[in-house]
Each structure stands twice: as structure tokens, then as C-alpha cells.
User: What shape does this take?
Amino acid sequence: MPELTGVDVDRAVTEMTAVFGPHTGRDWTVPAGGLEWSCWTTAAHVAHDLLAYAGQVSGRPDDGYLPFDLAVSPAAGPAEVLRVVVACGGLLRAAVDAAPPRARAWHYGPCDPAGFAAMGVAETLLHTDDIARGLGVSWQPPQALSAAVVRRLFPDAPAGPAPQVLRWLTGRGELPGRPRRTSWSWRAAVD
Assistant: This one.
């Protein structure tokens, strides 16, 4: 199976903006699904993570995260926050696609560009799901992107429909015959 690339990051971000574009006039101060964060804060968090991953891939630190952060203006409306997500997604796409496949940067161990792409896609899909639940928007994570994320970040995942498995793996849903997860982590680091 092919590794995730910047194109996949772009697909996930495009999915997020397509889902929420018609809903930017709504109240985004409501909680995002089962999170304590608001929908607005969750979207800003996606942008933050995409930018942080882009910085890691570009700077290639081997011992921790680079000491910078993203601050989205509290005055920004939902449409503006989504534009920040698009910008940060573009930066991650560019960083991943420009990096040699054997490049490594720190994410709780050495992580390759494909791993950062997978984490960017995962953050975007999972938090799109959270925001959709918070806003009451019917949405399902795309099968192909979900399957790629599960394969890359959760190598010991159980079989099943990838969107449902991804939700279960991250404590967001049920999976028949398995207890709901209360803690989890993904494995992005490589040898």
C-alpha cells in the first residue's frame, strides 16, 4: 500500500472545508462532539497541528517539537478559521512533498514525512467528525483516507469499516464486541 503524501493532507482539508463551508454562519461556540473544546477551538487546533507538523518536517528536529505556536485571532469567525486550516494544510502538504522519504523529524521518536502526513490527515478527519457532531451536521469520514490512516498509525487495528474503526481506535465510537476505548495513542515513529 502506498504511503500518505501531501495530496492526502489536501484531500482531508478539502473535505473539512466542503463539509463546513455551508455552516460558517452557525454558532461555533458549542462543544465539538464529545470534546470539552468548542467547534471554533477544535478547528483552530487542527490548523495548529497542521502547522506544527509542517514545521517538524521542514526543520527536522530530532529531540522535540520546535518552540513555536499558532495563535488564531479570537475575533476570527468560523470561515476565517477554516481559511487558516487551508493555509496550514498547504504548508504541511508542501513540507511533506518536498522532503525526501528517508527524512526524519521528532514525534515521540523519529517520524518520516508520510507519518506526518498521516497524522495531519488523522487530526483533520477526527476533528471534522467532532465538529460535525457538535454542529449536528451529518458526515462520515471518507473510507479511503480513514483506511490509510488506520493502516499507517494503528498497525494492530481490528478489521471493520475504516471510518468506524478509526472512531473506535480514538475513543469516539463503538465497535461491536469491543469495549469503548478510554485511552489511546497512535504510532507515527519509524525505525
